[in-house]
Amino acid sequence: MGALRITEVRTFLVGGSWRNWLIVKIETDAGLHGVGEATLEGKEATVEAAVRELARYIVGKDANAIERHFQEMYRRAFYAGGEVLNSAISGVETALWDLKGKALGVPVYELLGGKTRDRIKLYANGWYRQGMSPEQFAEAARRTVGLGAKGLKFNPWGGRRGIDFTRLENRILNDGIESVEAIRAAVGPDIDLFIDCNGIFQTTGNAIRAAKGVERFNIGFFEEPVPHENLDEMAYVRNKIDIPVATGERLFTPFAFQQLLARDGADIVQPDMSHCGGVLSAFRIAAIADSHYAAFTPHNPNGEVSYAAGVQLAACVPNFFALEHFPPEPWRFQVCRNEMKVVDGWLEIPDRPGLGVEFDEEAAAEHPYEAVDLYNLHRPEMAPKLPRFGDRLR
Ligand SMILES: [Mg+2]
Predict the structure, then answer these.
(1) Could you list which residues have their CB under 5 Å from ion ligand 1?
(2) Checking CA distances to 189, which of 14, 87, 92, 319 falls within 20 to 30 Å?
(3) pTM exceeds 0.90 for this model
(4) Can you tell me the mean pLDDT for 27-41?
(5) What is the mean pLDDT of residues 55-69?
(6) Residue 300 C-alpha to ligand 1 middle, in angstroms?
(7) Is 6-105 assigned to CATH 3.30.390.10?
(8) How open is the CA angle 242-248-249, to the nearest 5 degrees?
(9) Which residues face 336 on adjacent strands?
(10) How far is the CA of 52 from the centre of ligand 1 (A)?
(11) Residue 224 Cα, ligand 1 centroid: separation in angstroms?
(12) 4 within 8 A of 33, measured Cβ to Cβ
């Protein structure tokens, strides 16, 4: 294909309800543009600066040579690790895939082997902001399943007042277990329930106690039972519990996932499309997972460009699991227009070129950046600010 010369890298901070989206837009001399997302929750302005530094390298280059540019940005830059630099690279790399797909007139998944499925199973997150009693959890679960959700993810312990991440008192542990029991009773045996510990248990012993307490409710996975830094301890917990372990939203690049899986540290890997290195890194991570008989699903809490990139991977990788789905901001689809549809809890795979999303700069400008720290998300006072599912799942 003919050269597509990159003329400009532009960034947009869009104020979401509990984190800002960092959208990266790459312009070319052919009039085509591509978009990617580099959202790093709570650190978006830091990543924006890193994207500007990447622009020094990439402006003037041919947009087609995606892998060459990845190697230059990642390997040749000498300092290669961490969430800030990898998020910046992810945003740029994803925008190049969007561009290539648009230039060729095909969705990105067609460039990665084509579809391995016709629709994508969703599971709901962010559906239970109203309170943490068993009754409140059960009511919210019933309502969300009524909207078509086939799976529900939640943290039954994280938002509880007085929780101590090292001590884990029986009162907190038992309240969480009772909530899981109430949710299972409310939705019946066939709905998938997933527990995200968000790495709150800071001893392996407490992570194991918590898992043992809920094993009998047929939990589909137990996510980040311990923090992400020590892969040996993640593997230790997985070896001790009878629930599959999911992790990876805070791991970056195929190297980290290779080390996780070499230790048998996960059943399901969850790289974030905005942090892991981008489309081809996610594809490689899925392949590494597949070779360890582990499943793949993108961590998916951010903006619509990141969502669309996850959908492209979900469409084509053979070991895809199910896609996380949060309640959208009421204005989300004005800022990021697309044709993705949800029918009865399943997402229909779109067939528009590239990522299939049109980013509207003017609509985005109506939602300016506001500094917010991610750790505030789990505080009860945040609840009124968070989007909720309306009368449908999307
Ligand atoms: Mg998580």
Answers:
(1) 196
(2) 319
(3) yes
(4) 97
(5) 98
(6) 9
(7) yes
(8) 125
(9) 359
(10) 29
(11) 7
(12) no
Q: Identify the pLDDT of residue 1.
A: 84
Superfamily of domain 110-360+376-385: Enolase-like C-terminal domain (3.20.20.120)
Q: What is the whole-number distance in angstroms between the Cα of residue 28 and the centre of ligand 1? A: 36
C-beta atoms surrounding 321 within 10 Å: 25
CB atoms within 10 A of CB 391: 6
Backbone angles phi, psi at 150, to 5 degrees: -100, -10
Question: So where are the chain's domains?
Answer: 6-105, 110-360+376-385
Compute the distance from residue 249 Cα to the ligand 1 centre, in Å: 6
392 pLDDT higher than 90: no
Query: How far is ligand 1, taken at its centre, from the CA of residue 93, in Å?
Result: 23
Task: Give residue 327 CA to ligand 1 midpoint distance, Å.
Answer: 16
Distance CA(394)–CA(359), nearest Å, equals 18
Over the chain, what is the mean pLDDT?
Answer: 96
Q: Which residues does residue 342 pair with via DSSP β-bridges, in sequence order?
A: 347
Assess contact for 83 and 271: CB atoms under 8 A. Answer: no
Contact 336, 359 (CB under 8 A): yes
